[in-house]
From TrEMBL:
Taxonomic classification: Eukaryota, Viridiplantae, Streptophyta, Embryophyta, Tracheophyta
Biological source species: Erythroxylum novogranatense
UniProt GO cellular component terms: cyclin-dependent protein kinase holoenzyme complex; nucleus
Annotated positions binding ATP: 182
GO process annotations (BP): positive regulation of transcription elongation by RNA polymerase II
Family: Belongs to the protein kinase superfamily. CMGC Ser/Thr protein kinase family. CDC2/CDKX subfamily.
Segments for region (Disordered): 1-22, 461-507, 586-605, 623-704
Highest taxon of source: Eukaryota
Keywords for the protein's UniProt record, in alphabetical order: ATP-binding, Kinase, Nucleotide-binding, Serine/threonine-protein kinase, Transferase
MF term (GO), any: ATP binding
Pfam families reported for this sequence: Pkinase
InterPro entries (UniProt xref): CDK, Kinase-like_dom_sf, Prot_kinase_dom, Protein_kinase_ATP_BS, Ser/Thr_kinase_AS
Protein name: Protein kinase domain-containing protein
Length: 704
């Protein structure tokens, strides 16, 4: 994309480099400089007799790092679409990993001349079809690309929902392939939020590796206020697969996944990118067994030599490294390696190895398993929260004992990755060379991994199983998702997030007329939830009526005071400066998800579900009753992501606030009664979402 200027191709014979398809007119062969992400590339173009532009790379090495072929085909249906008039033509990657150049108007290419081309400016980007709010605030992220048109996609199911996105399965008509469209939510009037979203795009464009999800394009239009990221479609995620009843991965299979994870991580790290949210649900897996790291929403560029401060509020709690929990603002690849260690342990044991409910408890669990940090480490690291979090009693490292049933080479690798001192965790490339991968049994070939049924079928089966076990939590309709109480938080989150539309009983998703009526895509399924900021900078989450929905039912703002749970953690003196460590000692237990109104459910049903839930949580705190006729539930967040108030709208539009602690502080978390533990697990899951929201907001402030 972004073929900007050109020079006459006197040096190269176009014939030998051109795509074999179509005839071309040698007289109009030009050399163009194009940009793709940060890279400038030179391509050789020829206008074909049918008016199409054929373009190919002059020097394949220039694109070699992108893993692309040296041959480019035109994309777009001649005479129908993708005709640009503004000095740029689009290069994307087509389904065969070849460069595609969208059709350009010859006039737009300018007079052929020698020399380096200027980068396309904001005006050029707008003329190429980008909305001005994007070109003005995130020019870098879209540089060299042209937007894809929504009309060339057919939206299918909603397959996922993240803190800042809805993800849809869709069919790309132009390229004849299934894709995933991630609709990112942000406020175009808030430059921070646009820049934050742009960072995810920039990072994704910087990366090109078989084990990293590929950003294939962006969908928007001149007057659009929304943006879709186009990704290759992935059938599964690791947490989902690992949670299929009856599935137990064999060692070569685990090694195969982990090897791919390290390869992807190695690529990220070598390109100066920290992922900062490695967990099973962000490791997507296709039908050929290929694992790809996804969700770069919390990722960041890093330079080990630079002194730039990073936020420590990253990584989902269970996978968060101790230095982050202790408030580190200078850290590196080791945070991703810690998360990987947790995943390896989880794949072997079949359950999360460090399932903390709060940040303090997370640290406590880490110290209990990995040993308390040495005095030397405390002294050297000078981490901000060290002085307030120091274990009274010193824990001995007991990893080897805990994992005694695992193969020795796996324990060895976990030992390294779960080193308290980040400097001892090594690197992804080092891990790939350890004996774990070199001794028998070796990692199997991804193509030999079992083929799993589509996610929806798996979900349906799990729902059936859960129903049979009577583990229904707050659901009333046969077709609605049911999460087993002991489900992995990642899994339940993804199941809860997925497909909140009504089903026709055959597992097919039905959309309301209202949804289908919204234009843009060939078939539309609407996004029912919106998060945006009000004039005061508060985040508002709003959901509208008339769409069938299921999902978490109870709203409540709650603060869990973990201090009392942690009898072994001390040095929180009576007059400790709590605000200073509040991020550490308290954590919120509700998520935007909880606070949404699921409008398809009848009001009656909502009330029933609410009261059932209320009973379950009776001992856990106060919660105001939901109003029977509420229309919209809103949550207001401060710009930092802190939830200010949560309320539902009463029949006359009055606000009914919902609040109260949801978790009981206990003297000993390990001896929680089962039922309460179950509730806590549930809220820990929801807390993941909330933490994510909070983390992203913190990023906006600190890192954009
Ligand atoms: N390429 C893809 N193919 C299939 N499903 C996908 C794809 N990308 C994302 N998903 C699904 O959508 C969900 C949300 O996507 P993603 O994690 O990128 O969004 P997010 O808003 O960043 O979420 P989070 O709140 O976890 O950060 C994923 O958990 C996954 O289930």
């Amino acid at each position: 994309m972004g073929c900007i200027s050109s020079k006459e191709n006197k040096l190269h014979s176009p014939k030998e480099r051109l795509s074999s398809r179509g005839n071309y007119d040698r007289r109009v062969a030009h050399v163009y400089s194009c940009s793709r992400g940060d890279e400038e590339v030179r391509v050789n173009s020829n206008k074909l007799e049918n008016g199409d532009l054929k373009v190919m790379l002059i020097d394949k090495k220039e694109f070699g790092s992108c893993g692309l072929d040296d041959h480019i085909e035109t994309d777009g249906i001649p005479g129908q679409d993708d005709k640009r008039t503004a000095g740029s033509c689009g290069i994307g990657v087509n389904s065969h990993s070849k460069l595609t150049v969208e059709k350009c108007d010859e006039g737009s290419l300018g007079h052929p001349s020698w020399g380096r081309v200027p980068k396309s400016g904001e005006a050029g980007q707008v003329a190429a079809g980008w909305p001005s709010w994007l070109a003005s605030q995130a020019s870098e992220a879209i540089r060299g690309w042209v937007p894809r048109q929504a009309a060339t996609f057919k939206k299918l199911d909603r397959i996922g929902q993240g803190t800042y996105s809805n993800v849809y399965k869709a069919y790309d008509v132009t390229r004849d392939k299934t894709v995933a469209l991630k609709k990112v939510r942000f406020d175009i009037n808030d430059s921070e939020s646009v820049k934050f979203m742009a960072r995810e795009i920039l990072i994704l464009r910087r990366l090109d590796h078989p084990n990293i999800i590929k950003l294939e394009g962006l969908i928007t239009s001149e007057n659009s206020h929304s943006l879709y990221l186009v990704f290759e479609y992935m059938e599964h995620d690791l947490t989902g697969l690992a949670s299929i009843p009856g599935i137990k991965f064999k060692e070569p299979q685990i090694k195969c996944y982990i090897q791919q994870l390290f390869s992807g991580l190695d690529h990220c790290h070598s390109r100066g990118v920290l992922h900062r949210d490695i967990k099973g649900s962000n490791l997507l897996i296709d039908n050929n067994g290929i694992l790809k790291i996804a969700d770069f929403g919390l990722a960041s560029f890093f330079d080990p030599k630079s002194n730039t401060q990073l936020t420590s509020r990253v990584v989902t709690l269970w996978y968060r490294a101790p230095e982050l929990l202790l408030g580190a603002s200078h850290y590196g690849v080791a945070v991703d390696l810690w998360s990987t260690g947790c995943i390896i342990g989880e794949l072997y044991t079949g359950k999360p190895i460090l399932p903390g409910r709060t940040e303090v408890e997370q640290l406590h669990k880490i110290f209990k398993l990995c040993g308390s940090p040495s005095e030397d480490y405390w002294r050297r690291s000078k981490l901000p929260h060290m002085s307030v979090i120091k274990t009274q009693r010193s824990y001995r490292r007991c990893l080897a004992e805990t994992f005694r049933d695992l193969p020795a080479s796996a324990v060895g690798l976990i030992e390294t990755l779960l080193s308290i001192d980040p400097a001892q965790r090594g690197t992804a490339s080092f891990a790939l060379r350890t004996e774990y991968f070199t001794i028998e049994p070796r990692a199997c070939d991804p193509s030999t991994l079992p083929k799993y049924p589509p996610r929806r079928e798996i979900d349906a089966k799990m729902q059936d199983d859960a129903r049979r076990q009577g583990a229904v939590v707050g659901r009333t309709k046969e077709s609605e998702a049911v999460i087993p109480s002991n489900a992995h938080p990642d899994l339940s989150t993804s199941v809860q997030r997925r497909d909140r539309h009504s089903s026709n009983g055959r597992g097919e998703i039905l959309y309301s007329k209202k949804e289908q009526a919204v234009s843009g895509f060939l078939d539309y399924c609407s996004n029912q939830t919106q998060a945006f900021r009000d004039g005061k900078g508060h985040y508002l989450v709003q959901q509208h009526k008339n769409v069938s929905h299921s999902g978490p039912l109870i709203s409540g703002t709650g603060w869990t005071n973990a201090g009392k749970n942690m009898d072994n953690l001390h040095q929180v003196p009576a007059r400790t400066n709590l605000p200073k460590v509040s991020g550490l000692l308290t954590s919120r237990t509700s998520s935007p998800e909880e606070h949404r109104h699921y409008p398809g459910s009848s009001d009656q049903k909502l009330v029933k579900q609410a009261s059932r839930f209320h009973n379950l949580l009776n001992e856990a705190g106060s919660m105001r009753k939901q109003d029977q006729n509420h229309q919209i539930r809103r949550m207001a967040y401060s710009p930092s992501g802190q939830m200010r108030k949560s309320y539902v709208r009463g029949p006359r539009g009055n606000k009914i606030y919902v609040s109260g602690p949801l978790l009981y502080p206990s003297n000993n978390g390990d001896q929680m009664p089962q039922e309460r533990d179950r509730q806590i697990q549930k809220y820990a899951r929801q807390q993941h979402d909330q933490t994510k929201l909070e983390m992203r907001n913190t990023h906006r402030k600190q890192e954009t």
